[in-house]
């Protein structure tokens, strides 16, 4: 069973934003799911990205809440854009059990989604395999030549300061997550791929507390063009 990124279904990745940008912000994956409450990248009410932007630039609370046009207008002004590294995931079980696949998708991908789920191999004693299809639009955008800086919001537990990815997918080589990150880093030598990463996800900010949120704001302010 295949789950696509919501950006594909809703047409988020427009030239209007992508070709104007100088900073590219990479995330992981946002599943297209029924009755979702997100309108754009980092658009869920539990995510702190747009809340941080409001505080950085002195904007009223909820300026961007459920308003894709305002988000795009701000991104166009400050020349940044988003793409996630995964376009879709293919989920299979060793016994082709549709019931267990649907349960996994509904309970883990749709309801409890976290980056760690992308690398899950076992659910309720049934082996689940996830094949990740990576986003070649990132490579294509780098080839356009306008991007000067790449940052990512997956955190340094997922992509280390040395750009070693976790988990290490031994045997996948260039076809795995590490290979894709290497391809992004090596595509253009004049692009700064920032080592430090902060996640704006609700769990990361709640666990990290006010100090973490302050670091997130400083990091975004440093790397988003003013």
CATH uppermost class: Alpha Beta
So what's the oligomer here?
Answer: single chain
**Strands of the largest sheet, in order across it?**
1-4-6-5
Number of domains: 1
Work out the radius of gyration.
17 Å
Total DSSP helices: 8
What general outline do the C-alpha atoms trace? globular
Distance between the termini: 43 Å
Chain-averaged pLDDT: 91
Kindly summarize this structure in a few lines:
The protein is α/β, with parallel strands linked by helices.
List the SSEs and their pairings.
Blueprint: E1 2-4, H1 6-10, H2 15-18, E2 23-27, H3 49-56, H4 68-78, E3 80-84, E4 86-93, H5 98-110, E5 122-123, E6 126-134, H6 136-144, E7 149-152, H7 177-187, E8 192-193, H8 202-223
Parallel strand pairs: 2-3, 2-7, 7-8
Antiparallel strand pairs: 1-4, 4-6, 5-6
Characterization of the model:
- The structure is a single chain.
- The chain is an alpha/beta fold and 226 residues long.
- It has one domain (2-87, 136-223): 3-Layer(aba) Sandwich (Uracil-DNA Glycosylase, subunit E).
- It contains 8 helices and 8 strands, in the order E-H-H-E-H-H-E-E-H-E-E-H-E-H-E-H.
- The protein has helices at residues 6-10, 15-18, 49-56, 68-78, 98-110, 136-144, 177-187, 202-223, and strands at 2-4, 23-27, 80-84, 86-93, 122-123, 126-134, 149-152, 192-193.
- The protein has a 4-stranded antiparallel β-sheet with strand order 1-4-6-5. Strands 3-2-7-8 form a 4-stranded parallel β-sheet.
- The N and C termini lie far apart (43 Å).
